[in-house]
Here is the input.
Amino acid sequence: MYQDLALYIDGEFIKGGDRREQDVINPATEEVLGKLPHATRADLDRALAAAQRAFESWKKSSPLERGKILRRVGELARERAKDIGRNITLDQGKPLAEAIGEIMVCAEHADWHAEECRRIYGRVIPPRQPNVRQIVVREPIGVCAAFTPWNFPFNQAIRKIVAAVGAGCTLILKGPEDSPSAVVALAQLFHDAGLPPGVLNIVWGVPGEVSTYLIESPIVRKISFTGSVPVGKQLAALAGAHMKRVTMELGGHSPVLVFDDADIEPAAEMLARFKLRNAGQVCVSPTRFYVQEKAYDKFLARFTEVIGSIKVGNGLDDGTQMGPLAHERRVLSMEQFLDDASQRGGKVVAGGSRISALGNDKGYFFAPTVVTDLPDDSRLMTDEPFGPVAPVTRFKDTAEVLRRANSLPFGLASYVFTNSLKTATEVSNGLEAGMVNINHFGMALAETPFGGIKDSGIGSEGGLETFDGYLVTKFITQV
Ligand code: NAD
Here is the structure.
């Protein structure tokens, strides 16, 4: 059975009444799964008041108390992973094993924040006179508003919730209306783990209307958003106009640098599988493939072979390795990328079009696709495709590939394959990116910082940096 959908405000699950409702669609079958209630103005006001009231006591809670609730959330997430994962596959499309894996990883985020919130330390500064004391304390910033997307509906939301709640803040979160089940399930996890009413509130609605209302409210002190660069810039500008702190986890266009001296075939295989995780709808998805001249043919042959062998289908079916795209918008976007590629002289060497994976004309399926021979200013090489399409191109030397890799306004993840220590050092120093992965994929762990630079965002989630966006610094001096 699909998740019962609701708002969650002041500790209560709410729906019905005169609230507008939105259909939630299964992207594999196009069937309607459920009706999602939109928050009214009165609901948003109630969520704001609840978060403000709850902050007065939650900010004084001990980190041990907060940690106990977060640890319980981790335990409950593990217990419920199969059911929550199934609903993610239904409304987001990813294969069931990926959906369950997303929840298991998130349980670790809850565990880690449960421990780390005990270590939100201040400091003592040596005074100039012996009778003076100078202390720096870090306090929770207040009520936060968060907006999370549909590609990792559980992960993107829990990362913001555990950081805010662990720091002693309260939160109103608007999840993704396209794939809402995971966020409602999260509200239930926190509720059952004993989080006091008002500390976490979940709302739904027209994204721009809800975000504008919450960001402009004087009650909200901090904004956190994960999504596209244009929307992130819009929200950051609005937050700036009201002098509010932001964390922005935005899009990328991750370069992949494969050098002649790498283990070419294993790299090609690993990259093909990683590229198609979540059908390529991942902000850190490997996106532009630069392969050094001598390795190019070998890389392309193995990469194309693996991409072409991936089984596309309904994420609930055994053996499915890639599900549908999350909604029709993404399929249309892939078609536009492919149109531009063919106009710019690109050669499609695998896939290239929408497919009917279920034997009927239903579902938002797109074939895993590889395109070669594209110029650097084509759309696939410059705009985030956010789908299962990989452009592969050649390079001559390190200086050239670094210049091309750094040429876009994005700076999220990057990938390097080489067996040379000198090359690894040179490119990890030279890449303009928030995260550099050398010879493996090792990001997004609870204990490591995740975030971008340049247009890809502001701030980090995870790692020691995780609470920075949710704390303010207070200096106290006394004689
Ligand atoms: P979109 O930009 O309309 O929406 C992306 C997400 O932002 C959605 O969850 C949406 O509800 C939310 N959103 C949009 N406008 C908003 C607003 N004014 N206030 C608050 N939230 C808002 O695009 P889309 O078609 O849903 O997704 C396509 C693009 O979004 C992709 O090409 C990709 O660049 C980006 N995206 C990035 C991530 C990420 O993890 N960084 C995740 C999902 C989507």
